[in-house]
Protein 1
Amino acid sequence: MKKLRQIAFGYSTQCNIRCDHCVAADSDESPNSKMPFAKAKAIIEEMAGCNVTGISFTAGEPLLFFKEINHLIRLCRKHGIYSRVVTNGHWAGTRQRSDKMISELIQSGLSQLRISCSRWHQKNINRENIVSAVSSCKKYGLDYFISFVTDFSNQDDAFEQFLRDSSFKFFPEPLIYSGRAKGFNRSRVFTDFPPNLCAMNPYLSPELDMFACCDAGTHFTETGFFYLGNHKDHTIDELFQKKEKRILYYLIGTMGLTNMASYIGLKASEIVKYKKCQLCENLFNSAENLRLLENSVKSGLINWTR
Ligand code: SF4
Ligand code: SF4
């Protein structure tokens, strides 16, 4: 049976706001690369031919390029591909504008809207925009959810209460300490010994580089662990196959990072101090740890199960 494939599609890294925690930006400079529209259309056609069943339009703010994204969504619908747009909700300043946007997206066949919300986003976007966007989704029957980015500190309690009081569908997402958030103070998180499994959706950048992880993976520059290659040298199918064949990627989603860290000698008392992406960086953005894991993957590591 063929594998079902999903991908985060980075049409452009441009954004109309500047969040202090943005993972898409490496520095003070705002990123502004963009995929040529004709290339994006051809890639979606190619993806349809190699079993891609879900595309999430992300990176910067996709709806800055509303016409093009709408066209790409229609292409997804034509091929039966589930489509999602990740947005900061800048377009929902009034109910009328929000209704217009959502009704057009749903006519094009959008499957789901993911609206970002956090104390960083909301320095730039009025939280009433979130209210309008959700109301329009409900009015036109578009599936939505709110991605509530948090560092799990009590500074976010008021935001969470707002989402709860509004009866919105929301899911807390851990802040990723990469990009602009790299230097943030890390709040302590109190949990027991979580396995730290990660589903790992791949990411295609506007420059047509593909990575095995759509979040912090692009920042593992010491080892390039998540880099799969560029579409100019490989087909989309080949790039997916590289992701699917690497045993270490498979183990991130099945064995989990905690067991891998323990296997190569990190003490349990150390492991619990890491957040998931940090632990991942410790394992795979270190040449020494990566070598240990690569060398043992087919012998000890893969059998390190209960
Ligand atoms: S809205 Fe998203 S892409 Fe834009 S600056 Fe904020 S985190 Fe980055
Ligand atoms: S844990 Fe690793 S694979 Fe998962 S999102 Fe973080 S960096 Fe990517």
Protein 2
Amino acid sequence: MDCITCGGPVNPQRWELGYHYCMQRNCLIANGISGRENYRLLLVPKQGFTIVHKDSPDLKHGKSSGRS
Ligand SMILES: [Zn+2]
């Protein structure tokens, strides 16, 4: 799970969601995230913030991690 921009580690969960880059600003910009309204910052317990698409099911679970 290496960032496609800097080669740094990418959270496997983010990778599975299709985000093949890390959270560094330069990498986010390089991958066109910055300034896009279709993405939302999501606070993930113990992992810090991640960026997900606004239609991601993660957002629809609200604050929970999806455990039901
Ligand atoms: Zn990176």
